[in-house]
Write a structure and sequence with these properties.
Length: about 180
């Protein structure tokens, strides 16, 4: 646990040295790939340098900033899964050079995966692909606007699991923070 320390003129090098173990455990807990860790730490450090004069507790602030970078990393990855899936499916389904049998099989596989999702996930995905924004999805489905993102993330996780089960996607390590 990081305790609030008095405001001092601790150098960034000393700050990092004092937090090194805690940050390493944080990266492990979030299952951040080793090749991504330095970039996330640098993003947090840039934010720290920009706000350093306003920061009361540098250790706690930097630790929180790294934790937030880890969360953002996985949010981007989930969004990337959707975008990659959209692109792959649309290219395959519209490419005249792809055999009709392959397009038919992909359509069949996707339909099977889609039918295995919970009804609310199917509804959210249908509204999403119809171009509805989250507030409209919330209104149509009777949810609070603030809960749509969390529900959509659960649906993405369910979709990912189904796609992996039929071999249309490769699983990624699970994180308790997804």
């Amino acid at each position: 646990m990081i305790l609030n320390e008095p405001r001092t003129a601790e150098s960034i090098e000393d700050l990092l040295a004092n937090l090194e173990g805690q940050i390493a455990r944080l990266f492990s807990r979030f299952q951040i790939p080793p090749q991504e860790r330095e970039d996330l730490l640098q993003e947090a450090l840039l934010a720290f340098v920009a706000k350093r004069e306003q920061v009361v507790s540098p250790r706690a602030w930097l630790f929180s900033a790294v934790r937030n970078q880890c969360r953002v990393y996985w949010m981007r990855r989930r969004r990337g899964l959707f975008e990659a899936l959209d692109e792959t499916i649309l290219e395959t389904m519209s490419d005249p050079h792809v055999a009709i049998a392959e397009r038919t099989q992909l359509g069949h596989d996707l339909g099977k995966v889609f039918r295995q999702l919970p009804q609310r996930c199917r509804s959210i995905f249908k509204l999403r692909y119809a171009g509805c924004e989250p507030p409209e999805v919330a209104e149509r489905m009777g949810y609070k606007p603030s809960s749509v993102r969390q529900i959509a993330n659960r649906c993405i996780a369910a979709l990912s699991a189904q796609l992996c089960a039929v071999g249309l996607a490769v699983p990624r390590p699970r994180s308790s923070h997804d």
